[in-house]
Every structure is written in structure tokens, then in C-alpha cells.
Amino acid sequence: MKSVLSTKKLSLSQRELLLNASVSLVEYNAIKIQFEVFEIPPKIKNAIFTSQNGVHSFFENNRSSEIKNCFCVGEKTKLLLEKNGLKVIKMTEYAADLASYLVENHKDDTFHFFCGNIRSEEIPSKLKENNVSFQEIVAYKTTLNPIKINRQFNAVLFFSPSGVRSFFLENKLTNGTAVCIGTTTASEARKFMENVVISNTTTVESVIAKAAKLLIT
Fold first, then answer.
1. Which pTM does this prediction carry?
2. Is the pLDDT of residue 108 over 70?
3. pLDDT tens string 149-194
4. How far are the Cα atoms of 25, 33, 98, 189, 196 from residue 184, in angstroms, in the given order?
5. What does the pLDDT read at residue 177?
6. Which of 46, 51, 122, 214 lies 20 to 30 Å from 85, alpha-carbon distance?
7. How would DSSP label each residue in 24-80?
8. Do you know which Pfam families this protein is assigned to (predicted)?
9. What is the 8-class DSSP label of residue 113?
10. What is the rounded CA–CA span in Å between residue 108 and residue 102?
11. Which of 210, 215, 199 is nearest to 24 (CA)?
């Protein structure tokens, strides 16, 4: 039986996608997320969210604050914002695409950018280069959780560059394939190995589907 390691603990429905493909699964959290305490104005016109963690942290810390317009990365982030009653003006699959959209369409606006302590430079660097006003709020803290796993897998699922770094601090993937959630995560994985594939969309389910298809064929 083919084996898969997920560097993120999956939901029951996500696990079943792999188990129904007759694939054995080992899972753990390669990173730990801790929501930070922060202060923001009671009314925010434009907010940028690049992950569901930022959204969860916002609502845990600031239930009384209001946001008029949201701009986000990822379908799941968009759905979470809308589920909580917020209006999403623009969603893109990647941070670089959102940064380009903001520069092209909202150059004169001001933004609050909710992110983690470990975040990519695509959005802040692009906004700075084009003199777009924004305030960065560190909404959550990411820490690595490296664990030694004494076996090899046909595929390892990666969901962030931090997860990649955490895994390879203690492990090697000799013959297996790294299945990554997006181009940024894949770029990090290629620093450690050659056999890297990218999911069709930036969702956990797409990563699982890519792995299942890879191992069945």
C-alpha cells in the first residue's frame, strides 16, 4: 500500500479522500499557530487577509471592529470572511496576484494587512514600491514543530514554506514526492529535493487530490 505523510492534521472528510484511494496516512502538525493580541481602529475601510489564521485571529481579538472591504488570498479565506458577514471585493489564488491587483486598482486607498510573523514579501514589498499606504498587523505567530519520523513515504503533503522547513529540519525524503499547495511552498521544497509537484488550486483538498492521483497512476 502506498503511504502519505501530511504535515498538517486533516479533517475527517479530508482524511477519507486519501483512505478511499487505498492510501495509508500519517499526519502531524509541522507548524504551530498562536493568535496574537493586537489593537486596531473600530472601523477599517480596507483589510487584506492572506490566510484563514488571520481571519480567525481577527474575530477572536476584535469582535467589535468593523471592516468595510476585504481583499484576500485563497478560496477558503474568502469563504470564512463571507461566513462571518464580511464583504470580499477581490480574491486571488496567490499573494503576488493580489498585490498586483491592489496596485492597479486601489493605488490611492489605505489598507490594514493582517498577517503572520513569518510572511512572504510579495504584498508588502509591492505596496511599498508603488507608494500604497498600508499598516501591517501581526495577527498570529507561526513556530516550527520539527519531529523526527523514522520511515519513508511515497508522498509528503506540504501546505506552507514554514511546514517545508520544519519537516526537513529532522527528515529527508529520499524517493518520494513533495506535493505542495502552491508555487511559494514548492519553491521552498525544491531547496531540499527535486521531485516536487503543485496542486491545481491552493486548497488542502486539491493537494490531497493531486497526491491521490499521483499514487494511483
1. 0.88
2. yes
3. 999 999 999 999 999 999 999 999 988 999 999 999 999 999 999 9
4. 24, 19, 14, 9, 12
5. 97
6. 122
7. EEEE--SEEEEEPP----SEEEEEEE-SHHHHHHHHHH-TT-EEEEEEEESHHHHHH
8. HEM4
9. E
10. 10
11. 215
Q: Exposed e or buried b for every residue in 135-174, given b needs 16+ CB within 10 A?
A: eebbbbebeebeeeeeeebbbbbbbbbbbbbbbbeebebe
Is the pLDDT at 111 greater than 70? The verdict is yes
Which strand (E) or helix (H) includes residue 83? helix 75-83
3-state secondary structure of 184: helix
